[in-house]
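agent: user wants the full assembly modeled, not chains individually. Plan: 1) parse entity lines 2) check alphabet per entity 3) run joint structure prediction 4) return tokens. Steps 1-2 passed, two entities, 532 residues total. Proceeding.
--- entities ---
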Amino acid sequence: MKIVIEALIVLLILTNLKLIASSRLSACIRVVAVQGVLLGLMPLIAGQEALTLRIAALSGLTMLLKGVVFPWLLLKTLRSANVRREIEPFVGYAASLMIGAGLLFLAIWMSRQLPMPFAVTSPLIMPLAFFTMMIGLFAVVSRRKAITQVLGYLVMENGIYAFGLVFAQHEPLLVELGILLDAFMAVFVMGITIFHINREFDHIDADRLSALKG
Amino acid sequence: MTDLSLLLGPISALVFAPLIPGIINRTKAVAAGRTGQPLLQLYADLLRLFRKGAVYSRTTSWVFTAGPAAGLSCIAVSLTMLPMGGVPGAMAFTGDLIVMVYLMGLSRFFTAAAAMDTGSAFEGMGASREVQFSVLAEPALLVGLAAVALAAGPAGLFDAAPVVNGFRSLSEIYSGLTLSVWANDGAILLLAAAALFIVALTENCRIPVDDPTTHLELTMIHEVMVLDHSGPDFGMILYAAALKLWFFLALLSGLLIPVRSENLWINGISTIIGIFFLAVGVGLVESMMARLRLLRIPQLLAGALSLAALALVLVLWG
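--- prediction returned ---
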């Protein structure tokens, strides 16, 4: 059991690293989809108590939303916006990978400073949650295209979900569903916004928005 | 019995190493639907080259002639420290891992110096690239092996020696890699193996990094450095390249195949079979991938380094 959980966590860490090392936007979207499915699998495998209908429904819904609906929405937007690659990010890809490795160290150091109120399934889940949030934030600030920034936001939400996973049995279903609904609405709205920005300006480089003066 | 099996590693390397490029080429040929060259082609090439005479340019000095011999002898010495899976190396001592990496560096230095000695612009370019990529590949190799050492440590055969104080020999690390280590830390070992595989492809100039069959000097890395060598010198370079490939594949095979029985012969022979399978794997990678752009290679190596660093972090704090 332990090896399956650890393999899942390592795969999740690798999807994070792949996200910041890849320049092709469709590949980035697929990576985030894979991450969503893997995260959805987590409560089924890492659950500390017997599998209940609540946990099964939650993980099924997560996989459906993050693995199918979000990527489909984003790929549709990508096609209509007619961009393929992230050109000239603020931080280069090799440097991003190095920063990613540094963030991993930071995440592990941080989670070792936090005393856990109860035994956690795997000591790696907390670092994973912190790392995923940091990578999401990093993707938001270091990339130019609006799509990558949306992906960064999604990955940050994935990190929060992983954090919630540790406390899954103490968390009411309603909160979980609320977060999922929020993320869904956000991606939906951002997809529409990207479409409109693209129609108005012929590109989706978000950094040029700061040149707009009211 | 034990003494004889210690010689299995170096002797099998010296005998079978030229077979590995043949296996890779045959795999590529079959994947592309061709018949391909014979499996033993490199043996024939070596025999032909060693019977020839060498031609030396008047502008070169003794550095040029020393390059191939120094390269071959460095690799041959490091083979004596190489464990074949559970079989310890013939000359294992504490810290031999570092010596091995530096021997690789020394052979690379002599090859690069010989290339620069010709005064050819192409060869200088190749030397610069070779050295640049090895700067990135070496830390990935060392960090990956460090992760393996720590993972194999506490459960290993050599519990008496505390892991933290003092570096152990590579052979001790490898004999500690039992099936139970795989069951406990399989994810870590797989990460380290992935990093080692990328390093092996880089160090041996295989496809995602360098195309060994290219005929365009501008895109070559390793091949361009040896353009001016001929006859026995070139034979030594080809033989050293085959031995180096064998060396890295043996490191990987010993890591991936956790056969650690009482009988050292079984361990050694299973590792050799693993090497042949890995050679087929290298051939498959080469038939599936195109060569990366030169600017993308540092990114690949940074990826290998972060995989190795991830493995090390997981084993330290996981």
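agent: reporting back. Confidence is low (pLDDT under 50) at residues 155-166 of chain B. Chain B touches chain A through 18 residues (CB under 8 Å).
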